[in-house]
UniProtKB/TrEMBL annotation:
One Pfam assignment: GATase_4
Naturally occurring in which organism (per UniProt): Paraburkholderia madseniana
Protein name, UniProt field: Class II glutamine amidotransferase
Keyword Transferase found: yes
Annotated Glutamine amidotransferase type-2 domain residues: 2-282
Length: 282
């Protein structure tokens, strides 16, 4: 399966520390070698970088680690292909525009037999189930906000995403992160964790590399960062999501949570290490 990373920050933040550990999973500390990508929001605009090369060997990843971009919202993905070849058009995160907002989406899982797409203007460019699911969600948002384009109402957006998740998670494993530059939405189908860093800060060490940072040296009381990842990136105390958790983060804070049950047959197909089985509800 693929690996997800998202950050929600109260202030523009240099994310090169998290990105360094995450990129190592693209061919060095893990076997995800079918491409990678990252999206950085800067105010209303979003920069998206994708590469079909493994993240660990990607010159684009190396450039971004050495020339960090500060951002309040970041979505990143490293890919192990299940549907669609290792091509640029199949690399996450995918991006679409709705009512002047740029939305980005990344998925970890495998959705089978999605069926007929939702009616609407959004259609996949590549051949992945992930992009098809993203277009499904975007068409639901488009239909809901067609006559009242207040997509800044993040609670209303959350409700639409919750309904779309109910419809999609029956087709298979559907861990995802989704952002409109204001909020980060994250769903745990089988595996997802998060940590919230806030004042007073402490230090952290990457689990995928010999690198540590003392956030107390650079943080201020105004800073707060939520880091969401498939599995913990650091030696900090992370919160493990339960299958079915749908979360919404904004400015580094967890603002809302809902439960969208994962079908038993989907959980039965998931592969867990023995230490992870206790985290799965009976």
């Amino acid at each position: 399966m693929c690996q997800l990373l998202a950050l929600s920050c109260a202030e523009p933040t240099d994310v090169s520390f998290s990105l360094t550990g995450f990129a190592a999973r693209g061919g060095l500390t893990d076997h995800h070698v079918d491409g990678w990508g990252v999206a950085f929001y800067e105010d209303r605009a979003c920069r998206v970088f994708v590469d079909e090369k493994p993240a660990y060997q990607s010159p684009v990843a190396e450039f971004l680690k050495n020339h960090p971009i500060k951002s309040r919202n970041v979505v990143a993905h490293i890919r192990k292909a299940t549907q669609g070849g290792a091509r640029v058009e199949n690399c996450h995160p995918f991006m679409r525009e709705l009512h002047g907002q740029q939305w980005v989406f990344a998925h970890n899982g495998d959705l089978q037999r999605l069926g007929e797409p939702e009616q609407g203007p959004y259609a996949p460019v590549g051949t992945t189930d992930s992009e098809a699911a993203f277009c499904f969600i975007m068409n639901r948002l488009y239909a809901h906000f067609a006559n009242h384009a207040d997509t800044d109402d993040i609670d209303a957006v959350f409700d639409v995403i919750e309904q779309a998740t109910h419809a999609l998670n029956t087709y298979g494993i559907f861990n995802f992160v989704l952002s409109n530059g204001t909020a980060q939405f994250a769903y745990c189908s089988t595996r997802l964790s998060y940590v919230i860093r806030h004042w007073p800060f402490s230090s952290a060490r990457l689990v995928d590399g010999d690198l540590s940072v003392d956030f107390a040296e650079r943080g201020t009381p105004a800073d707060r960062t939520a880091v969401i990842a498939t599995t913990p990136l650091t030696d900090e105390v992370w919160s493990t999501c339960q299958p079915g958790d749908l979360l919404m983060f904004c400015s580094g804070a967890l603002l809302r949570r809902a439960h969208v049950p994962v079908p038993a047959e989907v959980l039965a197909t998931a592969k867990y290490a023995p230490s992870e089985l206790s985290a799965i509800p009976a």
